[in-house]
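Whiteboard transcription, Tuesday session. T.W. wrote the structure tokens on the left side:
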């Protein structure tokens, strides 16, 4: 009994929790400052129970019967230092199951969804706070989680234990770019600092030392190839192909369109461009390829150029010089991969918020470390073909580009172009426009797994260099 102290931004919920037999005390907290180091230190100084429950949202809460008892039971059985649970989201009075996912070693995203209730073992919380040497305005709660994660055990209670009123009702496609919204830049700087400190603590941080590349290697008929993987994009693939074929360069280039068994007329659109000898059409067989497999088909084709450049089948290049700028950047920066800058637009090409996405968090000294925290590396992307023919894309339809980018950055420089090169068109047909929670969870779990594999490889690399 009385084994939990609660810290809740919602006063009504805080009062209700006091009625729970396992709760010793319940404190109001200021949600506006909850993410700060000062707030976390204050919580550590006030809590006096064996466990500390922190609610991270100013939301109305309702517990399932015996929810806290169940979490404590699992804490006792496992020795976990942080527990979190599946729950129900309440939107306009409608209750929807909201499962979350297991937190892996590579779950370094500062926006990892734990739900709003975090149950810390107080001794672990205090040990973590004692190691919080940096003072953050925004990254305090994230820093606390990473400190516990570095030395302790996190446990996902895969049971629905509470209800929370959901205030962010945007669809998945609208939330996707929050972390690169320029208005959140100050927040992102602090999150990077906290994550970098964590990587150094666990041995996963990489110093800015890179392998050199000889870009003259190989005998290539074409200096560059634009690669357009597609499946059922009859409404957009023609725009992408026209954009690719309209490029102006001082070297020969071609355009690959790799169709993965489209059934909606996409193939007819592709064939309408075959009178241009620069177009290379690859029709995949019926086996599993996904986006990664489609990329591999282009990369290993004998007509693939020295540099393979990305263009999604529902996007366009921003002007006729994108391919030239890509190749110039490879030559000038001596790198194995280049990431450009894109503009968010609607289907007609009109700018949309948050506007220009330039991923300026990618710095030469720390970009590849911060890449383990963010959920993407930017676009458009270009690859040095000889290296990619060794690494290959994973045969998956999500996260394939992120996996390759992480793997390249482990050893090689990734160059950057901060001029807009690409129109990222948002429309109802985007594959990530309106995903259900199961698909969002599956996507996030896979990217966390990619990060886990990469983190383990980097830790091993650092050990071998000692």
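and on the right, the sequence the group agreed on:
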């Amino acid at each position: 009994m009385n084994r939990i102290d609660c810290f809740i931004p919602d006063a009504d919920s805080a009062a209700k929790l006091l009625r729970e037999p396992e709760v010793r005390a319940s404190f109001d907290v200021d949600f506006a400052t909850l993410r700060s180091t000062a707030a976390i230190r204050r919580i550590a100084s006030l809590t006096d129970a064996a466990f500390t429950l922190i609610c991270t949202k100013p939301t109305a809460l309702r517990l399932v019967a015996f929810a806290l008892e169940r979490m404590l039971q699992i804490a006792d059985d496992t020795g976990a230092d942080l527990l979190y649970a599946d729950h129900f989201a309440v939107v306009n009075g409608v209750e929807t199951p909201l499962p979350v996912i297991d937190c892996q070693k590579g779950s370094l995203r500062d926006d990892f969804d734990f739900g709003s209730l975090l149950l810390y073992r107080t001794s672990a919380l205090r040990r973590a706070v004692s190691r919080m040497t940096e003072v953050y305005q925004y990254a305090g709660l994230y820093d606390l989680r990473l400190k516990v994660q570095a030395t302790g055990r996190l446990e996902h209670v895969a049971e629905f234990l509470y209800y929370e009123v959901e205030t962010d009702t945007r669809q998945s496609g609208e939330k996707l770019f929050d972390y690169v919204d320029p208005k959140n830049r100050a927040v992102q700087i602090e999150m990077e600092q906290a994550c970098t400190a964590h990587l150094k603590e666990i041995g996963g941080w990489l110093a800015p030392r890179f392998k050199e590349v000889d870009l003259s290697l190989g005998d290539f008929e074409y200096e560059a190839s634009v690669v357009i993987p597609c499946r059922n994009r009859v409404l957009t693939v023609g725009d992408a192909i026209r954009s690719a074929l309209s490029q102006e360069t001082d070297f020969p280039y071609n355009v690959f369109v790799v169709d993965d068994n489209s059934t909606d007329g996409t193939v007819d659109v592709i064939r309408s461009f075959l009178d241009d000898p620069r177009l290379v059409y690859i029709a995949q067989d019926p086996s599993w390829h996904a986006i990664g497999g489609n990329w591999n088909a282009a990369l290993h084709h004998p007509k693939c150029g020295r540099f393979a450049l990305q263009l999604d089948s529902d996007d366009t290049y921003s002007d006729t010089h994108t391919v030239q700028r890509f190749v110039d950047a490879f030559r000038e920066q001596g790198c194995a991969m280049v990431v450009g800058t894109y503009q968010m637009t609607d289907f007609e090409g009109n700018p949309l918020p948050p506007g220009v996405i330039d991923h300026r968090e990618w710095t030469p000294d720390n970009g590849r470390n911060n890449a383990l925290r963010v959920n993407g590396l930017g676009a458009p992307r270009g690859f040095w073909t000889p290296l990619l023919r060794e690494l290959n894309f994973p045969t998956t339809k999500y996260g394939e580009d992120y996996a390759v980018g992480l793997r390249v950055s482990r050893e090689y420089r990734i160059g950057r172009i901060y001029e807009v090169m690409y129109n990222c068109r948002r429309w109802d047909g985007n594959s990530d426009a309106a995903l259900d929670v199961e698909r969002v969870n599956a996507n996030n779990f896979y990217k966390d797994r990619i990060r886990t594999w990469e983190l383990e490889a980097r830790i091993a690399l650092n050990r071998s260099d000692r």
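Someone added at the bottom: The first strand starts at residue 4 and ends at 8.
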